[in-house]
User: Which sequence fits this backbone?
């Protein structure tokens, strides 16, 4: 057990130094205290598996790399991690594009069938729909990161704006006050994003 703690501490220390980070900077980036980082790097404690996985993801290495003595070649896992991240971002972009294509199809169909008024509102509903799908994908791929909270904010405000515009242009009712609902929702999102 002491040997494993020593191996993990050596690998964590070298990875942190390769990134030119202090223990305090690393602690802020991964959401743990600098005292915990210090204990792990001194070999006084071994991080739990979920924390080791977080380190592996952060540094772009495998879990095996963190627990293997003399781990020196990390270039291929890092490249693999970069490729995976790029693939995930492309998938998210494709999902958003699909939603916008669907909105375009609805709008063009309304023009072809001469629906009055035209369904340009589909684009406004497409924005929160695309953001919602990307938020789900972001949660699955990257867990809880800043982009997730930004996307959920876009969903909230986009949906409220689309509904108010729908009522204004199609039903001739001014319900822009519904945007006030977004304020407590936004505050809730900000507070929830701070929960570790």
Assistant:
């Amino acid at each position: 057990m002491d040997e494993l703690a020593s191996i993990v501490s050596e690998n964590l220390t070298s990875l942190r130094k390769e990134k030119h980070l202090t223990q305090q900077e690393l602690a802020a980036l991964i959401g743990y205290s600098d005292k915990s980082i210090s204990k792990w790097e001194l070999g006084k404690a071994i991080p739990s598996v979920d924390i080791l996985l977080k380190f592996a993801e952060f540094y772009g290495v495998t879990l095996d790399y963190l627990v293997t003595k003399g781990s020196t070649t990390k270039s291929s896992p890092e490249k693999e991690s970069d490729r995976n991240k790029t693939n995930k971002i492309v998938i998210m972009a494709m999902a958003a594009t699909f939603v916008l294509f669907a909105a375009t199809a609805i709008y063009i169909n309304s023009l072809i069938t001469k629906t009055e008024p035209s369904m340009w509102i589909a684009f406004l509903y497409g924005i929160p729909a695309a953001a919602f799908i990307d938020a789900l994908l972001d949660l699955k791929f990257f867990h809880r990161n800043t982009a997730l909270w930004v996307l959920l904010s876009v969903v909230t405000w986009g949906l409220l704006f689309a509904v108010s515009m729908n009522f204004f242009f199609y039903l001739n009712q001014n319900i822009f006050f519904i945007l006030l609902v977004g304020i407590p929702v936004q505050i809730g999102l900000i507070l929830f994003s701070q929960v570790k």
Q: What stands out?
A: The radius of gyration is 23 Å. Residues 61 and 74 are 6 Å apart (CA to CA). The mean pLDDT is 87. Residues 75-112 form the longest helix (38 residues).
